[in-house]
Input
Amino acid sequence: GSVSRRLTLLVLAAAAAAWSAYLWLELIDARQGGEAFCAFGGGCDALWDGAFASWIQRVTGLPVAAWGVVWGGAALLVTALRSFRDRDDKVSMALRTASLVIASAGIASLGVLVAASVAANALCGSCIVTYIFVLAWVVVALFDFVRDRRKTPGSSYVHGTALAAGATAAVFLMLLIPGRNTPMSTSALADASFTAVSGDVLGEASDATSNDPERDQQLIQFLASLELEAAQLVSRSLEVMRTATPVPVEPPRALLYEDDAPVRITTFTDARCSHCAGLHRDLDVIRGLPGGANFSLEARHYPLDGNCNANLQAHGSEESASCTAARAEICAESLDDATRGQLVGAIYAKQQGLVPADVMQIASPVVTNLESCLAAPATAAILLDDIAWATRHDIRGTPMVLINGRKGTAFGPFLYAMVLAGGDLDHRAFAMLPDPPPAEG
Output
């Protein structure tokens, strides 16, 4: 009967709101501390940090997960009011049609989110749980609307739309403050920071601290252009690097770009890590910025697969694309910089659903005797050396980044600032930065 349907609607709306709130908290946990990484168990970061989700958060003040709480809260509020007022009057009719409006909004939102997932070529398993709750609520709400045979006057649709909008606005306003306190994704902050860099940043440095006044001035102007949150994350990254446990620096194996540059950036990555793909993109962007080419890059590997990484548990008896890609990139180290960069970029471009056969298809045309190289003991020994060095740095996830052998973070604006500073952690320009955000917990 109608009572059981209303109870079902209440439970489903509460479940949608609660699960969305859980995802929101997970998103905050992933972003606190300013160090972008992929957890070993994977997650929804490809969607959470994507262009669409970042745009939603920047424009509305709420991340996408919080909008799930808004929808669930509005659905819960309207359903609760209907349960307490079920009469043949204008208010009841308006509440009835408000449920229809919220159901329509739920369907439209699901369509947009699925389209965003397809466009990003990413699948968020945890997000699908929210979709199921929303879809179930919509089905029950529509069934309840059809089963309620009372005639709905046209004016009720106007009033119902107003009630649905009011309920949504009320929940939105309740969540606006915590929404605005939710950190932006580091990739979105990096994009905004790089966009703000002007090509016209030359001139005399008023407070030069190195033998390159032009680059000092570029650093000063770049730091001054950062949004508060980005500037705080640069401060946090400097703090991470200053307090990192010293580990002996390994001799470089295969440097990209300028071998004699004062800054050597060493990356430990996994082919299926979306933040690693973002780091690869950011480093390309940095090289094109004023003063940004003043570094060498050493690409090392930390595949998140226990079949080739003894620090992790193996899932299945066959190696994943992570192991194959790590070995293939080691086999490609003798190639020129441009070809190596294109190979790595092609692997990252196909990382969603990446399988070993994809890696072979990408690498075979450019790497001679690829299959024998992949199976060679020397290749396995190089990979084990990468994993061992990462372990000495207490790696917690990928990407992990070293600057001149010292652990830092993968935050793009921090890396650009360190390149401009020539690797100098004590550059006087860093004094203009705000304090880092409070540590988690």
In short: The CA atoms of residues 45 and 274 lie 7 Å apart. Residues 90-120 form the longest helix (31 residues). The beta strands are 255-257, 263-269, 295-301, 400-403, 406-407. The first strand starts at residue 255 and ends at 257.
